[in-house]
Amino acid sequence: MPVPFPCVPLGLACSLAWQVADGGRIVPDPDPVAVLQNVERVDDTLIVEWKTKRVDLQRKVAVFEGGIRATYGPTVLTADRLEVDMENKTGRADGDVRVVDPEGELRGTNLRFNWKDRTGEAEDVFVQVGAMKLRVARIIIEPDKWTLEQVAATPSRTRPPEFTLGSKKVILRTGRSGRAENPTIDIFGKRILQIPTTLGFSLDRRVTGFRFPAISFRRGAGFGLAWNSSVLLNDQTSFAVTSNVFPTSLPTYAAEVAWSRIPPTKSTGLISPRTELGERFGDSYLDTIATEDPGVEDAYLRDPRQTFAAGTYWNQSTRGRVVDSSSVSKRYELSSELGGSVGHLGGFVQLRYQSIRPVGGAPFVDRLALTGSANLGSFRLAKGLDFRLRADFAAFTTGSDSFGWARGLASLVYHPIPQLRVAGGYLLGGQTGEPEFAFDRLYSDRGWHVRADIDLGSIRAGFLGKYDSRQGRWYDHEYGFSFAAGSFEPYILWRQFPGDVRIGFRIRGTDVFKKLQRRTIERTAEAVKR
Questions:
Q1: 442 and 396 in contact (C-beta within 8 Å)?
Q2: Nearest-CA neighbor of 221 among 249, 252, 245?
Q3: What residues pair up with 334 in beta bridges, in sequence order?
Q4: CB 212 within 8 A of CB 225
Q5: DSSP H helical segments within 201-261, as ranges?
Q6: Residues 169, 18: Cα–Cα separation, whole Å
Q7: Domain 8-203+516-529 belongs to what topology?
Q8: Does domain 278-309+322-508 match CATH 2.40.160?
Q9: Model pLDDT for residues 50-99, shown as the tens digit of each residue
Q10: 3-state DSSP: the chain helix, strand, coil percent, rounded to 5?
Q11: Whole-prediction pTM value?
């Protein structure tokens, strides 16, 4: 397998050299005679092309010249000269060094690497990942960290750039954390901010990291302060706290400790289980316009989960229910979450033991809650036409009273051209027993969902509609629209049910941080070994 970008620049070079030199498949020439126009397949994935090759038997150094092209799966490295020192397990690529990978592109000079120690460095580096472009004076790769000196990053195409993020030195513990020394922000080439200290940030998707309180707006409550942070206590344990204060509602606060059996190298999501009080189908492509495509839903349901958590939660809000509440409290809750994928099936289940009350002043009720979701992914019926099937359920019991519901959603997704996707699905469900709280009920258990998305590159738009057969009405219309405006992507999401309007902008090119979040030291080592 190819080494994933952004470790491609040096990780790929280490891997190439290891296979060329250490694999013993290229036999040194008996004398330094030039071989012209060579193309050699080292194994099933690696092909090395060169015009001339010289071998110094005494130094055990092989020198490839005249335009080097090394193809490793979907990744291609080109250089004017490649030198491999078999004795010291080192190599060097000179001239116009370029690495092209499906996830990004790198150009630089003096690319040096040691495939035994898994280290390397390069100078005068230009990297592009998606819309984000980075210039780095020097990059040093070590097994446990990356060091980038004199960094400037921007997604802008203008001259001067609309904005640029910079730092004297950035140290990345890939997939874990990072530090930026004296970070700066430039607007149209003018320095507007320089932080006179080192700024730390999280690259671990299992926690959010420490965040500062932010101004937030909540419908019916006005403007207030919202704060939530989660940090790692050890490699597999997180601690999360939340506090929200709005002028016309009770303060919200919560604290939770969660432990996951999934090792860091295989974990791809938050350790904390998702609350059952939030939007029930917030990951479903045919239930919310915020889920951009079916692949996002599939990835979420297939995340490996083996989590156990304990927490206390006060004045929490429900969302998307027959009757919503804004002051649900749990004085304690013990929960577990299990999930992942088996063949085509992906999903998760949550089991909770909770002491819960629906509003302030009401008595607490001890009960068990079991919830879950699963889907079968996409099955190709014809070119551009896929069938999908999803199921969701919930069950609650206090010992004396029980209530539950289940629903299934079968859908067809048609993708005739890359710019257009349309989908439609039929929802069928049922409920049994009497609920302890009104917000336990399923809002809709029979009807049709339809959706259409248009992606023109710089402009994206989507529509989602939900029709309830029992009520005989369209109870939800949702719209999404975004467009590229230089370095920014303004967007608006409007949802009839649950009532929600979001207006904001994204910084284009931030997918580079997602790629860094996906990487860990262990994954890098495993990829190089492969």
A1: no
A2: 249
A3: 310, 353
A4: no
A5: none
A6: 30
A7: lipopolysaccharide transport protein A fold (2.60.450)
A8: yes
A9: 888 888 787 778 888 887 887 767 778 788 888 888 778 788 888 888 87
A10: 10, 60, 35
A11: 0.77
